[in-house]
Design a protein that fits this description.
The chain has three helices and six strands; from the N terminus they run ββββααββα. With 165 residues, it is of the alpha+beta class. A hairpin with a 6-residue loop joins strand 2 and strand 3. The longest helix has 16 residues. The chain is globular, with a radius of gyration of 17 Å. 24% of the residues are buried.
């Protein structure tokens, strides 16, 4: 199997670019995509961002956590460096944890139209409580719509031991 040709990489500009500008606030325009060469296969792609940060919209204080994104691609995939830049753009963005995971999921759905996607934020405690919002989506009128429902109602059936991270 050969590598990717220029046509397959059209639209990918951040990868390998030494002059990348890092956004200082929420920037969905940073997301780039490329063609899935394995559209006949169902498979998961998982991204782990252990250094996700955003701001509390009320106090302006920083919130720290890990962001986990898993998806089953259809025709389009997200390019990883652009995803990193996009996630880093939340650093000065003020939103609640629940909003962040839903915004991320919706932006990725808009970009890729995946078969299935889930976004799970696991934030460190502030004020003595940690918040771990989870959201998901399955493409309507496909088997993935039912997968999303089943995953949602069972996603925390066996929660991990939380030790204040």
């Amino acid at each position: 199997m050969s590598g990717r040709n220029k046509e397959e990489l059209k639209g990918v500009s951040f990868l390998g670019n030494q002059n990348t500008k890092y956004p200082d606030n929420y920037a969905p325009e940073m997301l780039e995509s490329f063609m899935n060469k394995h559209q006949g296969n169902d498979y998961f792609v998982k991204f782990n961002c252990p250094e996700f940060t955003s701001l509390c919209p009320m106090t302006g204080q920083p919130d720290f956590g890990a962001m986990y994104i898993s998806y089953v691609p259809d025709q389009i995939m997200v390019e990883s460096k652009s995803l990193k830049l996009y996630l880093f753009s939340f650093r000065n963005h003020g939103d609640f944890h629940e909003d962040c995971v839903n915004i991320i999921m919706k932006d990725l759905i808009k970009l890729m139209e995946p078969k299935y996607i889930e976004v799970w934020g696991k934030f460190t405690p502030r004020g003595g409580i940690s918040i771990d919002p989870y959201c998901n989506y399955g493409k309507p009128n496909t088997k993935w719509e039912q997968v999303a429902f089943n995953r949602l109602i069972n996603h925390d059936l066996y929660p991990e031991k939380v030790d204040n991270r």
